[in-house]
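Researcher: Following up on the earlier apo prediction. This time include the ligand. It's flavin mononucleotide, with the SMILES given after the sequence.
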Amino acid sequence: MYSKISSLAIAPMMGYTDRHFRYIYSTLFPKLSLYTEMVNLNYFLNKTEFPKVYSNNYSRVTVQLGGNEPKKYGSVGHLLSDMGIQKININCGCPSPRVGKGRFGVVLMREPELVKECANAILEHSNLEVSVKCRIGIGSKPDFKKLQEFIEIVATSGVRDFIVHARPAILNGISPKANRSIPRLDYTMVERLINERPDLNFMLNGGIDSLDTIRSLSPSIKAIMVGRMAYKNIPELTESYKFIYGEDLNMSDGIDRIIEYIESAQSRGTNPSHIVRHLLPFKKNTPNTRRWRSSIIQKSNIEEMRPYLNELKEAS
Ligand SMILES: Cc1cc2nc3c(=O)[nH]c(=O)nc-3n(C[C@H](O)[C@H](O)[C@H](O)COP(=O)(O)O)c2cc1C
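Model: Understood. Below is the ligand-bound prediction.
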């Protein structure tokens, strides 16, 4: 069946979407859009090297930033632009109490004027594209009007792209992890935004865990972002990719390139298991999968990992 969705992205995920993850996924799924993990603005202060944001292809990677100081956004935007980075995303969706204490993440949804100033500061100091990732609101009964107002104010900065995690954030006592499953999903709020603001681009995020879910989405949804499916369910990710882009994937060639990447990283002092851990979900389920995973991850160099990687390649 023909898909009306034209864009598939993998969500920013702390602990997952590091530079090695992004290399692997961009190699195996050439058209995916990718995001860094959230990087605090302060990370860029007093440093000359920024491995958290490195990428082999900046046209497909968006750097997600966390912070609330327009001035810092301006100078970090300038710096990232000089590095060749093209796209920045402002995190207005993280429900972690620690992040909330720092007055960024989802609590910024209460301060749309400040988010607007942050975006303005980046746009004034660089040619970067700026997007905002938010939730549908705060509290178990999110108010569409507040969401609408947030988008409206932020959009006056010139931001055109919004990623909306279609769950509210509950800030009194549930963990960030529970905040990804307990608050109720409501895709209709995102559909309403799409209908009301055809001049803006909205990417739907939250709970998209299979091709069936993707097929069931409203035809007004043109862009989607998946989080957990990307590391929990590679077969569904693969089918979803093929459905959206209408093209087959050559995993075997991709794995050869990843092996070269591991060799080169190891020669520069990177522990290859930091890369290989992102390949574990790619092993198809067979009686020997568990053993394969626990064995390859214990190897300390590419030479010992190679037979396992060849096995992965042959099964792909
Ligand atoms: C392990 C993990 C780490 C995450 N880290 C971030 C992050 O750094 N920045 C962010 O905006 N969202 C983060 N998220 C939220 C995801 O980007 C996404 O909004 C959420 O998982 C809902 O999508 P899903 O239902 O497809 O997983 C994280 C999610 C997970 C599972």
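Model: The longest strand covers residues 129-135.
Researcher: Noted. I'll compare it with the apo version next.
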